[in-house]
Here is the input.
Amino acid sequence: MPTAGLDLGGSGIRLRISSPEGRVLDETTGPSVNSTAAGDPLRYATAFLLNRCRDLRISALSTVAFGLSGLHGSLPPADSALRLLHAELGTRRLVLADDCVTSYVGALGERPGVVCAAGTGVVTLASDGVNRSAKVDGWGAMAGDLGSGYWIGRAGLAAALCAHDGRIERGSAALLAAMIERHGDPARFAHEVTTSEDAKAIVSGFAPVVLDAATAGDEASSDIVGAAAAHLATAIAAALDRAGAPPRIAGTGRLLTRTGVLAGRLVDLLTRRMPDASWVEPAGSSLDGACRLAAAAPVPAPPFGTLVTVTTISEVEEQ
Here is the structure.
């Protein structure tokens, strides 16, 4: 039977359904859970998958793997979701993974090292490939995600509003112009963004503007990008140290997969900090990682403790 992998991140959901031979049968995207009236991420991901299968008239999936963000390393119970998937699609195995695991498996597979996944949020995961792993950050926008798209976007918007206020030493005329071009009157935008259900996406959506302005030589934007790179470098070093992993480093997510000023600053910092480090291109995305987890039986090494769970229908029926 086919399998399905889903990657649910802060900027949206991605789904891929594959044949037993690995051929892609369908790949689609949808809005993030934060942009809907749905409940928890697992419920939303399950409903999204079932609706898509109904649209495609797919009646059976053997295994489903969800990569979930925003859970801060605490995975929800899988029983209810698996019962529903089993009733609708005959699914017998459900893999739940923190999105740091799907990012790692997609980028490095079973190799030891560290993966920094930087998008709307940011989380870093390292493993020695045997029995030790360490997760750093991924604590969400209110308490962490230092150096993330949200962090950069918020700093950029603050610099724009400083320029609007006349706080020249803290402001950026270039970012203020970009804010006005994208969002109109700054006073109206400040009110709208604080009351919008899509506030997180709006703020993180300003990060590419900051990166482009830094590339063009804007001093305030360059300082923001430098601080973000320092946060990411610190997280990577801490994860490697705690896991006892070799300095094989991969960056994933929309902020690091594209070559640009942030990736360049980060590589420079890590090269000075760890001369023996190797920066490797990720083999795949977090969606690739979810699909790999769905296709594998059992879940491939390295072990990631409570950051990944595997539940079978036989276990659920025995309860």
About this structure: The longest helix spans residues 219-243.
